[in-house]
């Protein structure tokens, strides 16, 4: 049966593609995209967010080019980055961690609503594409510890990265790095403790040469301690250029 199936794929790829395409079209007609925020029609064919609500998401403007923290004066490096340069080269975080993104991210991260990752990954990718072609070779989602990923059922950063990568036409390399210590949940810790909590928590395990330029993807950038710890591991492994991409920036926490 397996041999017959493989032969069918090899001999009739156009027929299978037509059936698959027709099935998707039928599903989209039966279950059209609906905006999760206002219940108007979403953006076809599969984005459950209308253009109006996308345009109303709180933009993160006038930021530090290194860590994406809001600052007075565009492109001014913040005092924190001047005192301690992070291991990554730059961060791009298009939105502020405010309503309704707080609600959407919580529903994805803690409510099991993994479909929201399509919304977050799509709007992240669109804002990145607006800047021009991404200057990285691969996307690396921040890994969860295996025990936490089993409890949650998925890695929200990996799900966001998957949809962003699809639009940006970049590979997702989710096996390059692993979280080797089951650290405490960062959100439950004060800012001053977070860097200690994730110190040495990541290990790069690439079996092949790493791409010279990567983008680390996460849902929220708060103090930056987690992505900095992961960037340090990639620096030690030989990565030359590291960017951080996140959906939302929580301001005022260092």
Description:
The protein is of the alpha/beta class. The chain is built from 10 helices and 7 strands. It has helices spanning 2-11, 13-30, 51-56, 79-83, 101-109, 116-130, 146-152, 156-168, 191-198, 225-237, and strands at residues 90-92, 95-96, 138-141, 177-179, 202-204, 213-221, 241-249. Strands 1, 2, 3, 6 and 7 form a 5-stranded parallel beta sheet that branches. The chain has a two-stranded antiparallel ribbon with strand order 4-5. The radius of gyration is 20 Å and the shape is globular. The protein starts with a helix and ends in a 5-residue tail after the last strand. 35% of the residues are buried. Mean pLDDT is 86; it is low at 1-12 and 19-30.
Q: Can you count the helices?
A: 10
Report the strand count: 7
What low-confidence regions span 5 or more consecutive residues with pLDDT below 50? 1-12, 19-30
Helix content bin: 40-55%
- Please provide the ordered H/E string of secondary-structure elements: HHHHEEHHEHHEHEEHE
Q: Main sheet? A: 5 strands, parallel
Q: Radius of gyration, Cα only, in angstroms? A: 20 Å
The general outline is globular
Question: Class by helix and strand content?
Answer: alpha/beta
């Amino acid at each position: 049966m397996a041999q017959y199936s493989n032969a069918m794929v090899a001999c009739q790829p156009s027929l299978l593609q037509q059936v698959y395409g027709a099935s998707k079209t039928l599903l989209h007609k039966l279950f059209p995209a609906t905006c999760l925020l206002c219940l108007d029609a979403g953006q076809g064919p599969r984005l459950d967010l209308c253009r109006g609500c996308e345009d109303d998401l709180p933009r993160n403007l006038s930021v530090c080019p290194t860590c994406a923290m809001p600052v007075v004066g565009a492109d001014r490096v913040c005092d924190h980055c001047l005192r301690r340069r992070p291991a990554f080269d730059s961060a791009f975080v298009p939105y502020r961690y405010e309503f309704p993104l707080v609600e959407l991210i919580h529903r994805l991260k803690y409510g099991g609503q993994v479909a929201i990752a399509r919304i977050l990954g799509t709007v992240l990718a669109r804002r990145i594409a607006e800047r021009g072609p991404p200057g990285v070779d691969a996307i690396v989602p921040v890994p969860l510890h295996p025990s936490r990923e089993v409890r949650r059922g998925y890695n929200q950063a990996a799900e966001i990265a998957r949809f962003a990568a699809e639009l940006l036409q970049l590979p997702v390399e989710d096996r390059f790095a692993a979280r080797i210590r089951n650290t405490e949940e960062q959100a439950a810790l004060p800012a001053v403790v977070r860097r200690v909590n994730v110190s040495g928590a990541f290990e790069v395990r690439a079996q092949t040469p790493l791409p010279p330029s990567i983008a680390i993807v996460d849902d929220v950038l708060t103090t930056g301690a987690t992505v900095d710890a992961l960037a340090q591991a990639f620096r030690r492994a030989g990565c030359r250029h590291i960017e951080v991409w996140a959906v939302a920036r929580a301001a005022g926490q260092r």
